[in-house]
Amino acid sequence: MISCRRKLEEEAQRDERDGLVNGLMSYKQAHYFYKLTMDLLMLTLFLGFVSGILILIPRLRKSDTGKGAQQKFASQASKAYTKADVSSHNKRTDCWIIIKDKVYDVTSYVEEHPGGDAILVHAGDDSTEGFFGPQHATRVFDMIEDFYIGNLVK
Questions:
Q1: Is 147 exposed, middle or buried (0-12, 13-18, 19+ CB in 10 A)?
Q2: Locate the Cytochrome b5 heme-binding domain: which residues (predicted)?
């Protein structure tokens, strides 16, 4: 038992003399490896944090937009328009559309519309069929409420 202990002490002294940590690498190499590991850990944490923020911000905006649209909807729900009222707003500079018996003033969106002048095809008329077509992403269903101005009277 003493000889085994002496052997371990001799190995430890040799490693110390050679600058080795547990006989595997030098202290300088071990320090570099530790620093590299910590840097990678910090980078991973930072990227995780940034990714989380980038995922949450659009969701927060979406929920805020929904609340604003609901308040706007509630405050203007009493306004009613006939089909004749809506039909007079059929120009690029004055564009109203009807979607599921609700009236929307999309004049400010006409120039931004990704489909170009396609929005003008049903200006002043019912756009329900075109609105629910496959070309629209689901976000348009939230966006449209920002343009709501009243209900269609039949």
A1: buried
A2: 78-153
Q: pLDDT tens digits for 7-39?
A: 777 777 776 666 665 666 767 777 788 899 999
Q: What is the pTM of this model?
A: 0.50
Higher pLDDT: 109 or 40? It is: 40
Per residue, what are the HEC states of 68-130? HHHHHHHHHCCCEECHHHHHCCEECCEEEEEECCEEEECHHHHHHCCCHHHHHCCCCCECHHH
Distance of CA 73 to the CA centre of its chain: 24
Residue 143 banded pLDDT, cuts 50, 70, 90: confident
> What is the DSSP code (8-state) at residue 150?
E
127 pairs with which residues across the strands? Answer: none
- Nearest partner of 150 among 97, 109, 92, 114, judged by Cα: 97
Q: Which residues pair with 103 in a beta bridge?
A: 98, 150
